Amino acid sequence: MGSRNRRYQQRQQTSALAYLYLAFALIGLASTMYFNVRAIQAFGSGYTPLAFILAGYQGSPILGSLASDFWVGAIASTIWMIAEGRSLGMRNIWGYVFLALILAWAFALPLFLYMRERHLNKGGQTARIAAARLTGRSLANY
After folding, report:
1. Helix/strand/coil for 47
2. Of 92, 73, 93, which is closest to residue 84 (Cα–Cα)?
3. pTM of the complete model
4. Model pLDDT for residues 14-52, shown as the tens digit of each residue
5. I want to staple 99 with a disulfide (CB 3.0 to 4.6 A). Which of 37, 108, 120, 128 is the partner?
6. What angle, 0 to 180 degrees and rounded to 10, lies between the N-to-C axes of helices 105-121 and 93-102?
7. E-strand spans in 18-87?
8. What share of residues in the chain are helix, strand, coil (percent, to 5)?
9. Closest CA to 54 of 38, 71, 37, 40
10. What is the DSSP string of 83-123?
């Protein structure tokens, strides 16, 4: 009975973490869209993907620092997202990349993390994946 309670408690903690990621996804989507709508209103047809990228580097060195921080982190985490999703056997990994490009990285990454937590909670996947990673073997061998 004690083992069963520990498993239930662990699943509850993971579920809370998943919902925290989901909350970040919704906050990321709402906040990013708010500023994108304001930018479209201010710049009209001048609001292009290139203008979006360049805006972070214009103005002050602080903006350049923030833009560099964002782009390096976003690209690195996108590569990780694809590799992690593939290694876990998650479906529709490219959908998260697409969401990042058309909506917001601040939405797509936390949404991926939410879905990853849900995927890991399915039927003992965590132990199987951990064993595969520790031994360097493919998940198909487990």
Report:
1. coil
2. 93
3. 0.76
4. 678 999 999 999 999 999 999 999 999 998 988 898 988
5. 108
6. 160
7. none
8. 85, 0, 15
9. 71
10. HHHHHHT-S-HHHHHHHHHHT-HHHHHHHHHHHHHHHHHST
Residue with tokens 């990042």: 100
Element (H, E) at 40: helix 2-43
Task: Give the integer Cα–Cα distance in Å for 5 and 36.
Answer: 46
| Amino acid of residue 83 | A
* Angle at 121 (CA atoms; ends 98, 106), nearest 5 degrees: 30
Name the residue type at position 61: P
What tokens does 25 get?
A: 């996804």
The label of the residue with tokens 């694809």 reads 82
Among candidate residues 122, 15, 105, 29, the one with its CA nearest the CA of residue 69: 105
Dihedral angle, C-alpha 48, 50, 56, 57, nearest 10 °: -140
Q: Give tens-digit pLDDT for 54-63.
A: 988 998 999 9
Residue carrying the six token digits 């996947």: 125
